[in-house]
Amino acid sequence: MNQYNRELSRRSLLKAVACGFGSLALTGLQQANALTSTSLLAKPALFPQKAKRVIFIFMAGGPSHVDTFDYKPELFSKDGKKIDFVGVRTNTFGKESKRTLMKPLWDFKQHGQSGKHVSSLFPHIAKHVDELAFIHSMHTEGVAHGPSTLFMHTGATNLVRPSMGSWISYGLGTENQNLPAFVTISPSSSKGGPRNYGNAFLPSIHQGTALGRAGDVSDAKIRNIENSMLSNRERKNRFDLLQGLNSVQNDSFPLNDNLEATIENYELAWRMQMEAPELTDLKEESKSTQKIYGIDEKETEYFGKQCLLARRMVERGVRFVSVNYSDESANPRWDQHGNLAKHAVHARATDKPVAGLLQDLKSRGLLEDTLVWWGGEFGRTPFSQNNDGRDHNPRGFTVFLAGGGIKPGFSYGATDEIGSVAVDKPVHMHDLHATLLHALGLDHERLTYRHSGRDFRLTDVHGSVVEGLFS
Amino acid sequence: MIYFACLVLNAEKAFEGYNHWAFRPIENPLVPKVKDRVWATDSIDSFILAKLESKKMSPAPITDKYTLLRRVYFDLIGLPPSPDQIYNFVSDHSEDAYPKVVDELLGSPRYGERWGRHWLDVARYADTTGGGRNNPFPNASRYRDYVVTSFNEDKSFDRFIIEQIAGDLMPSKSESEYNENLTATGFLALGPHNYELQDKELLRMEVVDEQLNTVAQAFLGVTLGCARCHDHPFDPIAIQEYYSIAGIFRSTNSLVPGNVASFHERELLDGHSESRKRHDKVLTSLQENLKEALAEIKATGGKSDKKQRSLDPLTLKGIVIDNTHAKLVGNWVSSTNTSGFVGEQYLHDDAKAKGSKSITFKASIPQKGEYEVQVSYSHGKGRSMKVPVTVMHADGEQKIFIDQTKPPSILGFFTSVGIFTFDQRESDVVQITTEGTIRHVIADAIRLVPRSQQKKINLIAQNQPINPEKKLPLQERLKNAEERAQKLKKEIEAQKANAPIKVQKVMSVREHKNASNSPVHLRGEIRSQGSVVPRGFLVVATPENRATEAKIPAGQSGRLQLADWIATADNPLTARVFVNRVWHHLFGRGIVRSTDNFGKMGDRPSHPKLLDYLSHFFIENNWSTKSLIRKIVLSSTYRMSSSHVLPKDPGNELFSRQNRRRLEAEAIRDAILLASGNVSFQNSKINQNRSLFQKIDRNKIPELFEVFDYPNPGLVTGSRNTSTVPTQALFMMNNEFILKHAKVVAEKINARRDLDNGQKIKLAFLSCVGRNPYHKENKLAVRYLSQSSDKKESSIGIDGLVHSLFACLDFRYLN
Fold first, then answer.
1. Is the distance from CB of B721 to CB of A204 less than 8 angstroms?
2. What are the structural domains, with CATH classification, of chain A?
3. In this complex, do B736 and A229 lie within 8 Å of one another by their Cβ atoms?
4. How far is A222 from chain B, CA to nearest CA, in Å?
5. CA–CA separation, A132 vs A378, rounded Å?
6. Residue B24, φ and ψ in degrees, nearest 5
7. Scanning A309, A414, B187, B504, which has the fewest C-beta atoms within 10 Å of its C-beta?
8. Is the minimum CB–CB distance between A298 and chain B shorter than 8 Å?
C-alpha cells in the first residue's frame, strides 16, 4: 500500500467509528436484537486471541490426502491388494465390498526442521512446513460434492444455514467500515453456490460479497462501484441533487433512524467509490511481489491473482476471505474419479500461489494474526476407481492451518495405515468450525442467533475445540 | 446471548405452556367504549383508541390525500398511482372517494399479484432447488399462478390451506377443480433439498422435516424443528407429537428415487390425452417415412439436401437437444462455417477463457431405461482432441473425452459416448466443458437414443432401407423419392403446427404405498428408533372436545385429516396467525411482531383483544382475505399519518401512528417499470415484467432483489428484513437498470411539448414520489437543471432529476 492509501484507510477507519457502515446498518422494525446483530462495527472478542481474521483456501472437489500430505508407506507396499471397504454412497450404503488399493502416484520426501513428509506435488508449500499444522484426522458429513461443500461452509448438508464467514462477521464485525466484512473470491455457482457464502437468516449485512466468478478473477470488483454511463462531474451533480432532496424529505421525519442511515449510506457509498476500485487493482503491487505468487507464469497466474487479492483484503481489515480454486463443471477441479495424474495440473496451479501468500503474509507481519486454512470438502479413497482415479472420502482426510496462534510445524491426528478412516484423535468438521471460532476469540456454543424461536449456531449442537492445535 | 437450544425443561414446566395466550381459544371480545367517537370509525379504531386513551394519549391525525393514496396503492396492488389517478383522487371531494379507490384496487388483478407474493414468501417459493445441484423446478410457476389466482378470486383461506396440504386427496367435480387442487400441493414439494444426498433414508427424513416445519410455521406459527430430537424446550410439544405428524409426511411419497433423487411431477387433466396419443403416432410414422425417403434419395445417387451442411433436428429419431436449448456458462460464439452440424448453428468457445465455459443439455426422459448418448460436432483440424463430456445419468456421473478433429461416426454428425440409464424426469444429462483443452471446442447438439430403437436407427444410418421400388430405373426412383420427401416434410410441419397442447405437469406429492405410523427417532437419529406413535396432531392446539389422534382410513397418509385439523375455526392458531400476517403487511409490524412464531419464544401481542376480534371477524366472514383487508384499510388506524411521533410512544408500540415503511424489492422495481411504461395497471402482456414473475433461482437471486432484502427463498418468511446498507446506495447511484429506466421516464416527460420546465419537474415528482415537489425541492431541481446551460454537460436534464428521485427517500419509503 502506498502512503496515500495508507492515509486514506486510516482516515476512513476513523470516520467509520463516527458514522461508518456498521453504525448505520440498522435493520427494520421487527428484529428484537437489531442493534447488536446488524452492525459491522468491530466488536471485541469474547476472550483475547491471536487470530483477527481468516483466509480460507478452498480446494474444490476433494484433493487426495494420501497423494499430498498424508504419507502412508503401507499404501505403497500394498498396491494392488483387494480389501473390504464399507460403502458410503446410495447404492453401496453400509455394505462391504472388495476394492483394490492404489499406491500414491507421487514420491514423498521429508522437509524442514519438522521433517514433515510432503509429496512432490507441492514443492513450494513444502518449504513452509515448519509454519503449518496438519490435521490428518479430518472427517465430515455428506458424500456428494454439494452436501459436503455446504457442510464445510455452513455446518449443514441440506438445511439452509449461515456460512461460517457470516457467523464471524456477526460475531466480530469488521475493522474497515468501507469494505465488506466477508469476501469470497471467484466462487462457483454450483455445488451449493451462493448458499456457501450466504447469511441465511442472519441480517443481510453479514452476507459474503462475491468478487469475480469461478475460474475468472478479471472482473473481481465490488458491484455497482463504477458508472460507465455518466461523467464524474455529472455523478457529482446528481449526488448533490439527491442528497439535497433527501435532506428536505428527512426534515419531515425527525425521529427516524432508518432515514438518517439511508442518507449517510449515500455518503459512505460515495467514499467507497473512491477507495474500493483501488482495492482490486493489482497493478499497484511490485513485480517482485507478483512474482512470488506466480502471477508471471501462465499456470499460476489466475490463482496467484486470487491469493494476492486475499492478502490485499486482509491487509485492509476484511475479516473473512475465501479463496476458491473451483470451476462450474459437474466434476470440480480436484475431483479425479479417473486419471488421478491430473492432480499434478491442480497442484501446479495452486502450489506456488499458496506458498507465495504464506511468505508474503509472514514478511508483512500479517501471518501472526491471520489464520490460514487450506483444504477441500473431503479427501479421496486409498482404493482406485475407474482403474486410475480415486472416489470421495469423507471419513478421513487432511487440511492444514497456519498463523493466527496455531501451533506451527507439527501434525495432529492420523488416519489408519492406508489413509482410509480417521482413527487417532478424529477431528470432525464441526470441531474444526469450533476451533476456528475459538482461534478468533469466540465461543462456538455462545455465538448464537435467535431465528423463528430457536437459538442457532454454526456447530448446531455439536463440535468441540481442538485444544491441541494451539501453541 | 446465552445458548439454550438443547435445554430440555421438565414436564411440569412444559405443562405451564398450555396456558400460553396463543393456545387459548379465540374469543369474540366486546368492543371497548371510547371518548373520541368521531375518530373511531371502525371497531378496530376503538381497540386502538381505548388503549391510547387509557394512557392519556391521542392518535395521529389522518394523513393527507397524496400520502394516503400512495400508501393504499402500494399496500393493495404493489404499484404507485399514476399522475392521473392522483389528480382524480385529490379532486374527488365526495365522501366515498376513498372507499371507491379501495374497492377498485381490491377488484384489480394486480391485487392478487401483490398479496400472492406475500404468501409466496411464506411458502418459500422458488424455481430451483438451490444448494448442491440446483435442479430446476420447471413447473413451479403453476403453483405461483395458482396462488395469485386464489387471492384474486378471494378463495376462502380455510379452503386455500386444505388445497395446499392435501389438494390431491380432495374430491373434485370438474377437471379444472382437480387441476387446481393438484397444483396447490406444489406447496409441499418446493423445499430447498439437496436431492443428491447419498444417504437416502436421511434425505427422506430431511424432506419430511422440512415439510412439517413449513406447514407448522406457515399456518400455525409454531416451530417444531426442536422436537425432532427431544421435547420442545419452550413450547409444550413432545418429541412423540413431532413423530405423530412426521408419520403423516412419511406416509406421503415426496421423492422419486435415484442416485440424484427428485420430486414428483403429476399430469394435469385437459381432455387431450387421447388426441395427443393419436397425434404422436401419426407424427412418428411420417418421420419414419421421411427418413426412408431420404435414404432412398441417397441410395439412388441424389443429394439428401441438407446433408452437407446441417441436419434438421425434425428428421432425427430419439431425443435431440440442440445448443439453442442448452444452458450456457461463459461466452460461446455461434457459427455455421464448418458443415456437419445439427439445426441452425453450432457453438464454439473461440479457444478463449479455457476452463471457465460450459454448456449443459437438459432432457426430458419419457421413461426410465437405457439410452445411447450421442454428441454432435462439426469436426476440423483446429478442434480440440480431448473435449471433456460429462454424462449425468441415473447412477452418477461419467466424464468421457471426445476428439473433435476426427469425423463423427454416426450419420457423419454424431459420436457415441456410451450407453447409460436415465430416470423418467427432466434433468441435466450432458455437460461439455472446455477445461484442459487448448484449441477450439465445439458444442452443437446431443441425442439420446433409446436402446430399444438403436438398431433400427443405425440401420437407417447405414442406408439399407427396404425398398419396394428397387426395380424402377434409378432416375425415376430418385425423382419419386425427392417428391415424397418434399411432401412428407410439409406434412410433418403441418402435423407439428397442429399438435394438441403439450401435457401440463405440476409439482406435487403422492400417497406412500406403505402409509403407516412412524417410530420416534431417538435424538433425531434416523437409525435409532424408539416406540411407534400413532399419527395425529399437536395436543396443545387441539380443543378439549376433539381427538388428537387422526382417524385415517387405511392406506392413506393422513394429510387430509391434518389439513382439516388446521383449517378449522376452533384451532386457536390458524386464524390468528393469518390475520396477524395481513396486519403486518398493512402496518409494517404484526399485532404479534414475530409473525412466524406464536410460541413462548415469540413476541406477545400488543393488542390481544384486537387480534381475537379480527380473527373472529375473519372466520365469520367465510375466511375472506379481501373483506379483512377492506375493513382494515378503511379504518382510521390505517389512515393515520406516519410523521406524528408521540414522545410517549417512540417505538409505536401502541399504533399511535402509521409506520413509515421501506418498499420491498419488488415494489421498488415495479414502480420504476410502471413509470417507464413497462408494467401497466391493465391486464396486459407487459405485466409479465412484474417482479413476481421473475424466475427465482435459489442460487442466483436477481441483483436488485438481493440488494433490497428479498427473503431467502429456502426459509418461511412472514416478515422480511429491511436493512440499510451502502450496497443499496451504490445500486441506486450506478446500476444500469436504474439509469436506463430514468432515461425512458425522462423521454416520456420531455415528449410532453405542452409542458414548460416547471411543469415537467412537477410531473417527474408525481410520477416518482406521488406528490408535487415541496418548495425547497423545486428550487433544488431548478438549480440542477440550470447547470445544463452553463456547463457543457449533455447528460444533465430530466433524466438526472428522475434518477435522483428514484434514489431519494420518499421513493423508497411509504409515508
1. yes
2. 40-220+280-469 (3.40.720.10)
3. yes
4. 9
5. 19
6. -80, 155
7. B504
8. no
For residue A139, report the phi and psi dihedrals to the nearest 5 degrees.
-145, 160
Q: Domain B317-448 adopts which CATH fold?
A: Jelly Rolls (2.60.120)
CA B750, CA B146: separation in Å to the nearest integer?
A: 41
Q: Which B residues, 240 through 269, put their C-beta within 8 Å of a C-beta on chain A?
A: 259
Position of cell 477507519? A13
Could you tell me the CA-to-CA distances from B492 to A62, B291, B325, B590 in Å, in that order?
Answer: 50, 12, 21, 60
* Nearest chain B alpha carbon to A264: B726
> CA distances (Å), B61 to each of A16, B300, B583, B644, in order?
39, 92, 20, 8
- Angle of CA points A386, A389, A391, to nearest 5°: 90
Quote the minimal CA–CA distance from A320 to chain B in Å: 18
For B369, other C-beta atoms within 10 Å of its C-beta total: 14
CA–CA dist B62, B640 (Å, integer)? 4
User: Chain B window 717-776: which residues touch A at a Cβ cutoff of 8 Å?
Assistant: 719-731, 733-736, 739, 774, 776
One digit per residue, the tens of pLDDT, for chain A of length 471 reads 333 333 333 333 333 332 223 322 322 222 323 334 556 778 888 787 889 999 999 999 999 999 999 999 999 999 999 988 887 776 667 778 889 999 999 999 999 999 999 999 999 999 999 999 999 999 999 888 888 999 999 999 888 899 999 999 999 988 887 788 899 999 887 788 888 998 888 877 788 888 887 777 776 777 898 898 898 889 999 999 999 999 999 887 766 667 777 887 888 788 778 777 777 788 889 999 999 999 999 999 999 999 999 999 999 999 999 999 998 776 789 999 888 999 999 999 999 999 999 999 999 999 999 999 999 999 999 999 888 999 999 999 999 999 999 999 999 999 999 999 999 999 999 999 999 999 999 999 999 998 877 789 999 989 999 999 998
Burial class (CB in 10 A: 0-12, 13-18, 19+), B229: middle
Task: Verify whether the Cβ–Cβ distance B132 to A88 is below 8 Å.
Answer: no
Q: Dihedral of CA A17/A19/A20/A23: which sign?
A: positive
Is A455–B712 a contact, with Cβ atoms under 8 angstroms apart?
A: no
Q: Per the structure block, which three cell numbers stand in for A205?
A: 449485512
Instruction: Say how far apart CA A301 and CA A321 lie, in whole Å.
Output: 19
ipTM of this complex prediction, to 2 decimal places: 0.77
Give residue limits of the domains in chain B. 317-448, 730-814
Query: Please, are residues B759 and B750 in contact by the beta-carbon 8 Å criterion?
Result: no
pLDDT in tens, B541-591: 898 888 888 899 999 999 999 999 999 999 999 999 999 999 999 999 999
Nearest CA in chain A to B714: A160
Place of cell 399504533: B655
Cβ of residue B670 closer than 8 Å to a chain A Cβ:
no
CA distances to A143, B33, B399, B402, B412 from B383, in Å: 36, 86, 19, 11, 16
> Helix, strand, or coil here: B487?
helix
Size of interface A-B (CB pairs under 8 A): 314
Query: Do the Cβ atoms of A454 and B225 come within 8 Å?
Result: yes
How is residue A162 written as a grid cell? Answer: 449461515
Find cell 395427443 and name the residue: B276
Instruction: Give A390's DSSP letter.
Output: -
Q: What sign results for the dihedral spanned by CA atoms B265, B268, B274, B275?
A: negative
Q: Which residue of A has its CA nearest to B229?
A: A461
Inter-chain contact B784–A237, Cβ cutoff 8 Å?
yes
* C-beta neighbour count of B353 within 10 angstroms: 14
**Pairing of β B387-393 and β A370-375:** unpaired
- Pick from A153, A167, A224 the residue to mutate for testing the B interface (most B CBs within 10 Å): A224
Structural contact between residues B434 and B350, judged by C-beta atoms closer than 8 angstroms? no
**How many Å apart are CA A458 and CA A438, to the nearest integer?**
12
